[in-house]
């Protein structure tokens, strides 16, 4: 049985090794994606807080003057007072100093380094209707789980965690392989299991809602459409933002769209305890009457939705902020270390 398990372990590593290497390297970077994005675009990301932010209408007018001929389609608001806001004009994002109205710069609509890293991690940069890249990476994540289980089985009779620095050749790499695997076991299991849940979301999410006896809320249900009849003058984005704040007083709005004549205002918001950058609270507002058509805060979301959100936060390391980001980044690098040491051991044995 041990020989069979060893062959399964080795075959899985050789077949899925390249994909797991991509997983580990890109995952270690993605753990700090927002922080790296601000650092790489520091000249447009940071502002000096000074008084109260200007109105969205004023910021939209300033951005539209800088890029004439484009309609303002939305705003991205920061939760930190020293980070700039963005005005969206079509697919283009304009960074503005919300305190002075100064135009800081424009975000290139083409994919940058971090967005490519993100898509490489999710789907190998493959964009097609069948989403084959996502399927490959999801099954690679499943192979990681099997590697962890079979590796634990193989380690158990030896239970060696010490590294003999004086050892040479295959023994040294064997010790490193065991030590890294044991000390990162819990975190590797967390990465593998949560990644599988995300990758097979179309199959697993219905099971989560069934197990929790809840129904999908606004976050993970198919998008709802609302009948909006133009009547009179529509409210502006600042009025819509005020309605959103009144609907979820403890949540901070982080984005708002500017709808077409028959559309609705859709506001995203974050509670202080929400760690995910995008937030998990939504408010839909009638642009003519200013009435709230739908609202869902992350605190009141269905239990299935909260569980799915928690799963994503664990996978990305957002669950406890910076400490958990560091841990999950190191765990991703542990995947790389396990692959490298395992392949070196195999080559030396050959």
Please describe what this structure looks like.
The protein has 350 residues and is an alpha+beta fold. Among the domains are: 2-35 and 114-214 and 326-349; 237-301, SHC Adaptor Protein (2-Layer Sandwich). Helices cover 51% and strands 13% of the residues. It has 12 helices and 8 strands. The chain has helices at 2-30, 33-40, 42-45, 56-66, 113-123, 132-155, 170-183, 185-199, 201-211, 237-247, 303-316, 322-349; strands spanning 72-76, 85-89, 92-96, 103-107, 252-257, 264-270, 281-286, 292-296. Strands 4-3-2-1-5-6-7-8 form an 8-stranded antiparallel β-sheet. Helix 8 packs across helix 11 (303-316). It is elongated, with a radius of gyration of 24 Å. The two termini are 22 Å apart.
Structural class: alpha+beta
Q: Which percent bin holds the helix content?
A: 40-55%
Number of helices: 12
Strand order of the largest sheet: 4-3-2-1-5-6-7-8
Largest sheet: 8 strands, antiparallel
Order of helices and strands: HHHHEEEEHHHHHHEEEEHH
Termini separation (Å)?
22 Å
Shape: elongated
Count the E strands: 8
Low-confidence stretches: none
Please state the CA-atom Rg, rounded to the nearest Å: 24 Å
Mean pLDDT: 93
């Amino acid at each position: 049985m041990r020989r069979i398990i060893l062959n399964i372990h080795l075959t899985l590593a050789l077949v899925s090794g390249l994909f797991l290497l991509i997983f580990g390297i890109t995952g270690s970077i993605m753990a700090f994606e927002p922080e790296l994005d601000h650092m790489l675009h520091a000249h447009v990301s940071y502002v000096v807080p000074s008084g109260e932010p200007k109105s969205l209408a004023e910021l939209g007018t300033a951005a539209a003057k800088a890029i004439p001929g484009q309609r303002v389609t939305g705003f991205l608001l920061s939760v930190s007072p020293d980070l700039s806001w963005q005005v969206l004009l079509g697919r283009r994002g304009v960074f503005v100093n919300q305190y002075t109205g100064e135009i800081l710069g424009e975000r290139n609509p083409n994919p940058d380094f971090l967005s490519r890293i993100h898509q490489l991690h999710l789907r190998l940069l493959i964009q097609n209707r069948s989403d084959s890249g996502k399927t490959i990476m999801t099954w690679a994540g499943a192979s990681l789980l099997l590697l962890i289980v079979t590796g634990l089985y193989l380690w158990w009779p030896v239970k060696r965690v010490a590294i003999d620095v004086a050892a040479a050749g295959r023994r040294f790499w064997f010790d490193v392989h065991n030590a890294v695997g044991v000390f990162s076991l819990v975190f590797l299991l967390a990465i593998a299991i949560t990644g599988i849940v995300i990758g097979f979301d179309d199959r697993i999410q219905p099971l989560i809602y069934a197990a929790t006896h809840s129904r999908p809320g606004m976050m993970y249900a198919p998008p709802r459409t609302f009948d909006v009849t133009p009547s009179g003058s529509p409210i502006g984005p600042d009025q819509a933002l005020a309605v959103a704040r009144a609907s979820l007083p403890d949540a901070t709005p982080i984005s708002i769209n500017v709808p077409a004549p028959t559309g609705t205002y859709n506001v995203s918001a974050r509670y202080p305890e929400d760690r995910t950058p995008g937030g998990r609270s939504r408010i839909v507002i009638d642009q003519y009457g200013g009435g709230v058509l739908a609202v869902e805060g992350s605190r009141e979301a269905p239990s299935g939705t909260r569980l799915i959100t928690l799963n994503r936060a664990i996978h990305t390391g957002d669950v406890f902020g910076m400490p958990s980001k560091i841990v999950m980044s190191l765990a991703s690098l542990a995947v790389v270390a396990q692959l490298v040491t395992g392949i070196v051991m195999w080559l030396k044995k050959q």
